[in-house]
Structure formats: C-alpha cells, structure tokens
Amino acid sequence: MSDHTPVAKTRGDRKAAVGNVGRPPVGWAVPGIVFFVVFAIVPLGIAVYLSFCDWDGLNSPTMTGLDNWTRLFKDSEFGQAAWLSLLLTTISWVFQTPVALLLGVWAAGRQRSRAVLSAVFFIPLLLSTTAIAMLFRALLDPNFGVIKSIGPWIGVDPNVMGSSTGALLVVAFVGGWQFMPFHTLIYQGGARQIPDVLYQAASIDGAGMVRQFFHITLPQLRHTMTTSSVLMIVGSLTYFDTVLIMTRGGPGTDTTILPYLMYRTGFQTYDLGYAAAIATALVIVATGISLLMVRLTGFGSMRSTREGM
After folding, report:
1. What is the chain written as a DSSP string?
2. 177 with 135: CB under 8 angstroms?
3. Which residues, 6 or more positions from 266, have their beta carbon under 8 angstroms from its beta carbon?
4. Which of 21, 211, 233, 306 is the most interior residue, by most CB within 10 Å?
5. Is residue 27 a part of any domain in this protein?
6. Is 136 exposed, middle or buried (0-12, 13-18, 19+ CB in 10 A)?
7. CA pair distance 290, 296, nearest whole angstrom
8. What topology does the record note for this protein and the membrane (predicted)?
9. Domain count, the chain
C-alpha cells in the first residue's frame, strides 16, 4: 500500500475548495454591521416607534396608535407630495440615465482628451449640494441672474422658477448636474469590465459602433444599469436641501416633495409624530421600488465569476 494520500479529489471537493478561496472571515463584516445597526437600523426603529406617537419634540412622546397613519392616508397634501416625489424621480431617471450611460461608455475608452475632460466633468460631484443650490438660485434669479439676459435668447422664461413645471424641472436638472458624474463613474467601471474580444469578434463580423453598442455594451451593462437606477431612485426620493434652498416647496406647494413635507411638518409645525410617519412611509416606498427593480431585472440572482480573486 502507498503511504501518501491520493491527490485526486472528487468534483464536489474541488468546487468547495474553489468556493472558499479568498473569502474573508465573517469577523471582517462586524464593524460594518455594527455601523449599519447603530446609524441605520436603530434610527429607523425610533422613527417607526414615533410614527405611532404624538410628539412635539419637547415633551415625552404619547402613544396614539394608528392615528398618524390614518391621517396619512386621508391627507391630500401627503398624496400630492408623494405624486411629486415619484414624478421628480421619474424625470431624474429619464434625464440622468441616458447621459450618464453614454458618457460612462465614452470615458471608458482610450481617447487622448478623455482624462482631462473626465476630470472636469467630475467637478460638480466634489461640490456640496448647498453650494450648488445657492449657485443655481443666483443664476436663475429673474431680476439679477444670468437667466434674465440669456433666457429670451434661448426661449426660456426668466421667471422659470415661478412656474410649477419649470421649478420641478429645475430641481431635477440641478440634482442631475451634480450627481450625474457619480453614475457616469459607475458606467465607466462597468464598461471597462466588458471583454475586448467581444468587440473584436463583432468587428470581424462587420458590426459598426452603433450595433456594437446596442448588442454588446447595453446587454453587458444590464446589472450596472440596475445598480445605478436603484441609487438614482433612492437619491431622487430623498431630495431635500436642493428644494429647501431653491424653492422652499414653491411656488405654492408645487415642489413640496415628501422629504420637504416631512421637514415642514416636523420642524415648522412641531408635529414630529406625523413627520415620523411620513419618513417611515418614504422608507417603505423607496425600499419597495428598489426591491421591485431588483426582482424584475434579475439582479438578485447575479453571481460574480471573479469571486474570491
């Protein structure tokens, strides 16, 4: 008999060995889990609890059961704010996704001017939302802003912020101008992971750049698009500082989206229990939309072929 153990392994043993290569121990996730629990789960739990209470922010919360939630579903202002939030989210997605996708694919190339132009384009991402909102508010001032001079030349009413449609579109544009570079970076990273051999084979078959984009680039970026869209939708649903600085929910209530309604209810009328109900409803809506997108796109079943490398 031979003294040494056989080298060959069963197919199941080989799979188990390969699956465990490079995976960090569970202990590495502990700091992240603790951070998430302390700064996400605990505050969310407090907000859910306060949504069943009557609280002015000074005295102790008083449990009122489902009163805030009953009021929520009967409140026409909440319904309008929810509709405006969904409309703003849709406009932001339609505006940002095609531009960010095309710029990301272009930035993944090897053009001579790519590095310089990409660096310039990413500058808005480095600025604070407050600074950007104040900048555009000054530029769009109908009396003293640049829009007063160039508005008539480009067919834009200088008082664009005074109309309901114009104010909502401006908020969507300002948010897109700031955060589009972030989504461009996501698409750039995804495009660089597409194997060159696919494009080489397509070129041999006579496919041009347009056909390569629609038959190779877009299918390969399907999961990247899902990731970007989820982040974009959640971000659009939580717009607050842009609305606060530029429109204050106006004109009238035409840009009073859910986050601003929550702020106004909690910190102007001191009805923090009802504000907590609005916040909880916003979390439920954002989470539901995100899970629905993940479910419909098959993103949840995606598996990395480079896991453990």
Report:
1. --SSPPS---HHHHHHHHHHTTPPPGGGGHHHHHHHIIIIIHHHHHHHHHTTEE--SSS--EE-TTHHHHHHHH-HHHHHHHHHHHHHHHHHHHHHHHHHHHHHHHHTS--TTHHHHHHHHTHHHHS-HHHHHHHHHHHT-TTTSTHHHHHHHHT--TTGGGSHHHHHHHHHHHHHHHHHHHHHHHHHHHHHTS-HHHHHHHHHTT--HHHHIIIIIHHHTHHHHHHHHHHHHHHHHT--HHHHHHTTT-STTTT--HHHHHHHHHHTS--HHHHHHHHHHHHHHHHHHHHHHHHHHTGGG---TTTT-
2. no
3. 57, 272, 274, 275, 276
4. 233
5. no
6. buried
7. 10
8. Multi-pass membrane protein
9. 1
Residue 56 lies in a domain: no
- Among 88, 97, 99, CA closest to 121: 99
Domain extent, residue 291, equals: 76-298
Q: What is the CATH number of the domain that holds 285?
A: 1.10.3720.10
Q: How many CB atoms lie within 10 A of CB 131?
A: 11
pTM for this predicted structure: 0.84
Cβ pair 284, 276 in contact under 8 A: no
In a domain, 5, yes or no: no
Q: Which residues pair with 53 in a beta bridge?
A: 63
Which pLDDT value is given to residue 5?
47
Write out pLDDT tens, residues 157-211.
899 999 989 999 999 999 999 999 999 999 999 999 999 999 999 999 998 999 9
Q: At what angle do helices 164-192 and 129-139 cross, to 10 degrees?
A: 130
- The reply to whether 156 falls in a domain is yes
